[in-house]
Design goal:
The protein is of the alpha/beta class and 245 residues long. The protein has one domain: Class I glutamine amidotransferase (GATase) domain (Rossmann fold), CATH 3.40.50. Helix content is 27%, strand content 21%. It has a nine-stranded mixed β-sheet, sandwiched between helices. β5, α3 and β6 form a beta-alpha-beta unit. The longest helix has 17 residues.
Length: 245
């Protein structure tokens, strides 16, 4: 009997400039995402920012699961706000691609793991909003942006996880130490999402989509911890297992 092919996980890309030249920006992603997906037993496929819906759908149809990666800020016009002075410069192409992919995946039951920016994309795609800058807009909030200057596995705080949730079934309900590299966070939770974890200052740290086979969003960066943290790697294993059902 022929062996089953491993599932294919699409990983969204970011744009970045490596120098000050006038060359077009690069498309890519941190290798830690790729390594975590491979370690979980899946084949990673980097998805470029293709605004052509036919081409994007062609790539989407190759996928068994979707990983929405970290990165810059979403244009606040997507959730009905004007741009705060602390909001970063958005990437219109990336916003369009990720919002489209997310809506397809949620509507069609494709497994989704949404990380950092990804949890924010998931929330905005389904009708929620964001704090554009935690320190400016959330009185009493703790520090959540530990970049630059700190390693990707730096533990910033713990999170409390709600029982009887997908996240609890994956990593348990004991306080989970996490890294933290974000200055934005979920404000109004989108219809159809349930909050499953909070930071000590009550910033939302995880959500999941109601009635979906597997759609989990986390505000920290488990790919930065997965090499030495079993509970972080279990998130990627859960994504891959959900693709094999």
């Amino acid at each position: 009997m022929a062996s089953q092919h491993p599932p294919t996980i699409g990983i969204t890309c970011t744009t970045f400039q490596t120098d000050q030249s006038q060359r077009p920006p690069n498309l890519g992603q941190n290798r830690s995402y790729v390594d975590a997906v491979v370690q979980a037993g899946a084949a990673p496929l980097l998805i470029p920012n293709l605004v052509d819906k036919i081409l994007l759908r062609t790539l989407y149809n190759l996928l068994d699961g979707l990983l929405l990666s970290g990165g810059g800020d979403i244009d606040p016009t997507h959730y009905g706000q004007s741009r705060h002075e602390k909001c970063g410069t958005p990437s219109p192409e990336r916003d369009e691609v990720e919002l489209t992919l997310t809506r397809w995946a949620i509507d069609e039951g494709m497994p989704v793991l949404a990380i950092c920016r990804g949890i924010q994309v998931l929330n905005v795609a389904l009708g929620g909003s964001l704090y554009q800058d935690i320190q400016a807009q959330v009185p009493g909030a703790e520090r959540h942006q530990w970049s630059p200057g700190y390693p990707r596995d730096y533990i910033a705080h713990t999170i409390s996880i709600s029982p009887q949730t997908q996240l609890a079934r994956i990593v348990g309900t004991n306080p989970l130490p996490v890294n933290s590299f974000h200055h934005q966070a979920i404000r109004e939770v989108a219809p159809g999402l349930t909050v499953t974890a909070h930071a000590p200052d009550q910033i939302i740290e995880a959500v999941e989509a109601d009635g979906h086979p597997f759609a989990v969003g986390v505000q920290w960066h488990p790919e930065g911890l997965a090499g030495g943290d079993i509970r972080a790697q279990q998130l990627f294993e859960a994504l891959v297992k959900s693709c094999q059902r």
